[in-house]
Amino acid sequence: MTKAIRIHAHGGPEVLRWEDVPTPEPGPGEALVRHGAVGLNYIDVYFRTGLYKTALPAVPGMEAAGTVVAVGDGVTEVKPGDRVAYATAPIGAYATERVIAADRLVKLPDGIDFHTAAAMMLQGMTAQYLLRRTYVVKAGDTIVVHAAAGGVGLIMCQWAKHLGATVIGVVSTPEKAELARAHGAAHVVVGHAGLVAEVKRITGGAMVPVVYDSVGKDTFTTSLDSLAPLGLMVSFGNASGPVGPIDVGLLAAKGSLYLTRPNLATYTAKRADLVRAAEDLFEVVGKGAVQIRVNQTFPLQEAAKAHVALEARQTTGSTVLLP
């Protein structure tokens, strides 16, 4: 048997249950992975609450690292004994072992342990596509990053600085402001109410070419108002709730703006893109340009406590669940 956190109904953290489940057998194209660490991400909350739909009962979690135990027919990407990591649908990572499509796994370099890998795959590859593909950040750019002291935010601040950009980070507390500064944010705004004025001051009125917003409903308008004409609004999360319906004419009125709502699954749907994203991430982590901060750990069976901390914005950096 395998242990897993399962949900039988949508709701608060209390719906997360620690249960016995049969250990699955890998089918054709699949691998059985024994987890060494599981990543905690806000998308797990969305599946738990029902904001993102899934059949029940379900095992949450999209990210983990561990060792391949067995493979099914036709698998060429990995073999038993390989150290691997993943950040992908379908959900199911909150378990001691799971079966997953082998072409969604990437092999870990020797210098990256399971804790670090589980903490960085989803957040790090998200940072990769946001900074290198959705908008190609270049030296001299000034960009806005919301939730700059969160897992994705800390990686983005470091990576963008490495690329030569100036980061304006937005955080919720003075303590988080210090953390964002320590990880590469050149300017930090506490609370989003004063963001537009600060962006105008910092840029001399030019505003910014791109805003990365994972907060959602509460910050959408201030994010749009921080953009330069023809700027790009990247809405990639809903921590404060989903953005409501918008009048597309608003984009014209505010300077012929662009709006996108990207996700990692689309950007890594092709294996070549998945491998490239992972290799980019491994490179910047390996050279020390990006440091992954695992600031909290919880036993996997206490996933409910981890969700409480995450939703209360009591976490910084990355959090991992230990089987």
From TrEMBL:
NCBIfam families: PRK10754.1. GO terms for cellular component: cytosol. SMART domains: PKS_ER. Pfam families: ADH_N (PF08240), ADH_zinc_N (PF00107). This is Quinone oxidoreductase. SUPFAM superfamilies: GroES-like (SSF50129), NAD(P)-binding Rossmann-fold domains (SSF51735). The keyword Transmembrane does not apply. GO terms for molecular function: mRNA 3'-UTR AU-rich region binding; NADPH binding; quinone reductase (NADPH) activity. Keywords: NADP, Oxidoreductase. Residues 11-321 form the Enoyl reductase (ER) domain.
